[in-house]
Design goal:
248 residues; alpha/beta; five-stranded mixed sheet; 10 helices; 5 strands; globular
Length: 248
C-alpha cells in the first residue's frame, strides 16, 4: 500500500496542537525564570564594535552581547555599509561560524547584531551537518582561523515537525524534502516518547547531535578544539522574544 505524502506546509509551520503546547510552556512562570529579560543596556555598550576577537571565549561573548543588543532594541548594525564591503573585498576573517536553519526568521547577522565579514554562515533546513556542510565549516576554520562554531537551532522548527509527522503517520515527504526527514529521523525518533513537547525535545536533541557530529566526524575541528583554538557550542533561538540561549 502506498504511504501518504506529508503536507508541504508541515515543513514551514508547526502543527496547531504543537504551537499551542509551546505557547503554553512559554507562558508558564518557570519558563520566564529560565529566560530572564534582556538588560536595557548591553554589558558591552561602551566597547567599540571593532575590538579584536582573539579567543573562542571572546568570540562567544561578542555573539551573546550582540544578541542582548538585538533583543533590547540597541542594535549597532556594524560593518554593513558599502565601505565595509569594499574593505573586505580583498579578504575575510570571520571570527565565528554558524550552522543554522534556513528558516527566514533565523538570520544570524541580525540575531547577533553582526555585519559583513563577521560570520561564516551555513544554513540548511534542520541545521543538519552533512558532508558538504562539514567541509564548509572546516574551510572556515582552516582558511580564516574562525574561533567558534555555533549550531543554531530554533523553536517550532518545520523540518523537525515534518520528521515527527513522518514517524507517527508512516508518511513520506514529497520530492527531495524526504532527504531532510531521513537525515533527522535517527535524531528525532529516540526522543518522541520523552515527557514534554515533542518538537521542543527534538529541536534540542538535534542541536546536541549536530554539535557532536562536528567534533566526531571532523579530525580538523576535533584537533582545533583539543588545542583550545576552537570551541563548538549549541544554541537555541526563541522566535517569540529573539533570545539565543546555549543548550549544548
Amino acid at each position: 500500500m502506498a504511504r501518504p505524502h506529508l503536507s508541504r506546509r508541515s515543513l514551514l509551520t508547526a502543527g496547531g496542537a504543537t504551537a499551542v503546547a509551546i505557547g503554553a510552556a512559554a507562558a508558564h512562570p518557570s519558563a520566564a525564570a529560565a529566560h530572564p529579560a534582556a538588560p536595557a543596556q548591553p554589558a558591552d555598550a561602551a566597547q567599540p564594535a571593532d575590538d579584536p576577537v582573539g579567543t573562542p571565549a571572546e568570540a562567544l561573548r561578542r555573539l551573546l552581547a550582540g544578541n542582548h543588543r538585538f533583543t533590547a532594541g540597541h542594535g549597532r548594525h556594524p560593518h554593513q555599509s558599502l565601505d565595509d564591503l569594499h574593505r573586505l573585498a580583498a579578504g575575510q576573517h570571520p571570527f565565528a561560524v554558524t550552522v543554522g536553519c534556513a528558516d527566514s526568521r533565523v538570520a544570524p547577522e541580525l540575531l547577533f547584531d553582526q555585519g559583513l565579514g563577521d560570520l561564516f554562515d551555513n544554513r540548511v533546513a534542520g541545521n543538519i551537518v552533512d558532508d558538504l556542510l562539514l567541509g564548509s565549516a572546516e574551510f572556515a576554520v582552516e582558511e580564516f582561523g574562525s574561533l567558534l562554531i555555533v549550531v543554531l537551532g530554533h523553536e517550532r522548527c518545520g523540518a523537525i515537525t515534518a520528521t515527527i509527522d513522518a514517524i507517527r503517520t508512516g508518511g513520506t515527504a514529497p520530492g527531495h524534502i524526504g532527504t531532510i526527514v531521513d537525515s533527522l529521523r535517527p535524531v528525532v525518533e529516540p526522543v518522541l516518547n520523552q515527557p514534554g513537547d515533542p518538537v521542543e525535545n527534538a529541536v534540542r536533541a538535534n542541536i546536541a547531535a549536530q554539535v557532536r557530529a562536528l567534533q566526531t566526524r571532523s579530525p580538523i575541528i576535533a584537533e582545533k578544539v583539543r588545542q583550545g583554538a576552537l570551541r563548538v557550542v549549541g544554541a537555541r533561538y526563541d522566535l517569540d522574544n529573539g533570545r539565543v540561549s546555549l543548550v549544548a
